[in-house]
Write a structure and sequence with these properties.
This protein is of the alpha/beta class. Helices cover 42% and strands 17% of the residues. Bound molecules: 5-S-methyl-1-O-phosphono-5-thio-D-ribulose.
Length: 354
Amino acid sequence: MYVAQPIEWTDQGVVMDQRRLPAEEVSYTYTDYHEVAKAIREMVIRGAPAIGVAAAMGVALGVQHSSAKSVEELRAEFTQICDVLSKTRPTAVDLFWALQRMKGRFEELAQAGASLACIRRSMIEEAKAVHAEKQASDEAIGRFGAEFMPKNGEVMTQCNAGALATAGIGTALGVIRVACEQGHKLHVLVPETRPYLQGARLTAWELYRGGIPLTLITDNMVGHFLKSGKVGAIVTGADRIAANGDSANKIGTYQMAVLAKENNVPFYIAAPISTLDLSIPDGDHIPIEERSAEEVTHIQGVRIAPDVPAAHPAFDVTPNRYIRAIFTERGVATSPYLDSLRELAAAPAVRAAR
Ligand code: MRU
């Protein structure tokens, strides 16, 4: 089945760009970490796990092109590189997870007395390892989640939690993909996901390319379809999951989860362990990214509203009571999430095949 490749490390730099999809498949090679930070902010790459991969590669680029003459000089620059990359998308915790991981590896090497050349090489290896691990964890999430999908009928998702969002097979779409590969006959309802239209532009494109049947709907049709009695499950991704299971995901997910409960449709989240933020007790502590009003008043550069104030919180938080289960690469968490998520976080990590 076709799997999109939203990001690639090459000797020339980091290759990515999904902004023109579905009309055009283009890519651009980013050679500077400042450019990578700008690319993350401007949605050249998006989706929490893929943002993490981009941040790791951004760090590797920064280190590769650094003019530092000593490890001490590089350490100072390293802090600056991570700082720039961290100020891009505040909700997606995978970004901070990836920066932390790169910092940890850097310190390990520095303390072992590694040369500058070795550190440069190893940072690239670490970024590639982050990418490979995302691929492996998506596959595992897909296997765990597929069991919860109906054998046939409709399922719903939100935004884009596919290959374009994770650099693997996708989390929510990975679950749907694995279920289809196992023989489930699924038909996916895809809300367009205003204002940025990740559903219409990206999820519809990925499913179509993958040969998975779908129907595109507008966001205000969600309740209508959930009430029809035909939707067997909802599966979405997440940008940050608090210790108690409250989960931030694309704006519109909360109302979908509430309507799911009202209509007895199980609502599931699929996300890697790197999306857990056990340092915060609940969803009230999740920072919500505010994006530009122009993304609401305009669609792809065309004004659709008068010049009035517009709000654009990019994410909302679904309280844990609406979530039937959370699929991770280490297993399935259910309520009480405080215990189940802590247990999964302490379980052995899924390693990438070498
Ligand atoms: O603003 P985006 O496009 O980065 O938002 C993406 C989402 O909300 C996804 O559902 C989430 O990051 C999970 S991606 C596997």
